[in-house]
Amino acid sequence: MTTETSAASRIFVTRNWYVGAISAELRDRPLGRMICGRRIVFFRNPDGRVQALAATCPHRGADLARGKVVGDSVECPFHGLRFNGGGACTRIPSQDSEAPIPRALRVPSYAVIEKAGFVWVWPEPGDTPTCEPEVPEFLGYGTPWRMTMLPRGQLSAGSYLNAMENALDDAHLAFVHQATIPGASERVAPFKITTDADRRGYGGIAEMGSMVAESPAVADVATGSRVMDWLARLAMDNLKPTHKAYHYRLSGLVCITTTDASGPRDHTFAFFTPSDAEHTYLFGGVTRNHSLNSVADWLFKQYMPALTAEDSKILGELVPEAQGPGGLATPFVIRADRQSFPFRRLYAEAMAAEGKTAPWALEGSAASEN
Ligand code: FES
Ligand SMILES: [Fe+2]
Q: What mean pLDDT value characterizes the chain?
């Protein structure tokens, strides 16, 4: 029943939990998201539990996400058919209420779990998940940690591969983010990679040494506006980071932890979720135990969309041949790519485990690695 999108789902790992929404995005109306090439509608039952269904109405193809929630069902905006959380049709208003509802009149449903303020979806219809969503510990930190998040999932230009590799790529900071990360070093810190035991992620530590900006916490919220930068100098603590730890997971998690002599000071994180071949959702935020004031909260809220807009712009303006699901067919790999390149290898392994072929050439790319 998802024929219109099943081809797109072949280019993603789909037996995997991805963030589909932030809990606060789901109130009393349905929410539509295209995830791994599948059109999904999320809604809450009267008891608050989140449901996820294929959003294409099987009657004439209206988008159920444009309908409304009625009781435990979502109602199609076209002829009023209703579907409950299991995907069964519960009402056909145009016929007598005694008339039978065909058993086959249903939409596929998706496994969904709400945890730690996020709604996680397993984008394989009718499938039984083989694991739990990976919820990072830092999402549950209490006082004095403060969390600031983008208020909703942001649909951005860039295939999942391009978006993830961009998030792992420090060599673009000095060029793409001149306004939001002024003073970012052109040079990328030495980075040693360790692959996670389950081969579904990897991480590393970049020693900051001479590359530390004078006050990275201030640089972290710079916007290019003099007023904002002045505010940032007042509201943000001066940190002297010793290193940054990076961790990337096939769940779509990108996390950068800043540590100083006293220990971890902030986790800047994003969950990336594949949308279609050329677009990716980003659910991002930062949790910190420094700059504990509401002006800093406000600055982070201004800063995060400005930063992500710069990434979306550069990825959306790549030449068309590089925008597809596999990026450029044979990218020339430079030293700085050592931080991001393992991602495509692990992701290709996970795709192979699902019987799928990754749409990027590992060998051609690896041959140019120096
Ligand atoms: S298209 Fe949905 S009820 Fe007709
Ligand atoms: Fe970026």
A: 89
